[in-house]
Amino acid sequence: DGGITQSPKYLFRKEGQNVTLSCEQNLNHDAMYWYRQDPGQGLRLIYYSQIVNDFQKGDIAEGYSVSREKKESFPLTVTSAQKNPTAFYLCASRYVQDGNYGYTFGSGTRLTVV
Amino acid sequence: SQQGEEDPQALSIQEGENATMNCSYKTSINNLQWYRQNSGRGLVHLILIRSNEREKHSGRLRVTLDTSKKSSSLLITASRAADTASYFCATDARGANAGKSTFGDGTTLTVKP
User: Fold this and answer.
1) CA B85/CA A84 separation, integer angstroms
2) Chain A interface disruption, residue of B23, B58, B100, most A CBs within 10 A
3) Contacts of B30 in chain A (CB under 8 A)
4) Closest residue on chain B to A101 (Cα)
5) Distance from C-alpha of A50 to C-alpha of B40, rounded to nearest angstrom
6) How confident is the model over A8-50, as pLDDT tens digits?
7) Is B59 on the interface with A (CB under 8 A)?
8) Best label site of A47, A53, A74, B111, fewest CB within 10 Å?
9) Could you give the 3-state DSSP secondary structure of residue A110?
């Protein structure tokens, strides 16, 4: 089955550590996205990539970094510069159907700072 | 500011009733999408309405779009307890912001059995 796989499902980080969240898709979608979701709130865009070896900052990119070396993979690193990283992180890829875009989401990674 | 904003923030109804939630946005769009999120899970695409469409149906879902008012509504008819979830609208913008969708804060729907 095609889809987006995020791992791990739960992640604990100590203060000052960098951690990397994995996002893999086998949907052959060009564009991929990382969103952050805080409790009771909507999604805020961290980074997105519309093509391999290229990515753009979203609305809250500070303290995060990404890479897009392969079409299938778009890992997100939460660096120690991110002061409040505890949140639910969602990865998505974008498809085109009949000239319109839609998004397929992974099941998320819940990151907690301990 | 957020492109898509839903209201109400929370909605509680009895099973069998209809649920209506609204979304407002600020800039020109190519399309508007509605998603559902069960607690602690990813979002699932429900329905997409194009900017040149006014109404669209999918099963018990009915979506309307009024581009003059920059607003959309999602109606769930004959609700079930399994419809309990958060619902988000997302807009696919034109121009400089093309390529990134903006999501609102969502409406949390509770359907009581």
Assistant:
1) 26
2) B100
3) 100-101
4) B92
5) 27
6) 999 998 888 999 999 999 999 999 999 999 988 889 999 999 9
7) no
8) A53
9) strand
Residue of B nearest to A51 (CA): B99
Q: Which of B42, B48, B100 sits opposite A58 (nearest CB)?
A: B100
How does pLDDT run across A66-109, given as a tens digit for each residue? 999 999 999 999 998 888 999 999 999 998 877 777 889 999 99
pLDDT band at A1 (very low <50, low <70, confident <90, very high): low
**A32 in B contact zone (CB under 8 Å):** no
List, in sequence order, every beta strand (DSSP E) within chain B. 5-7, 10-14, 19-24, 29-37, 43-50, 55-58, 61-66, 71-76, 85-93, 101-103, 107-112
Q: Which pair of tokens denotes residue A95?
A: 């498809």
Range of lowest pLDDT (A13-22, A24-33, B59-68, B94-103): B94-103
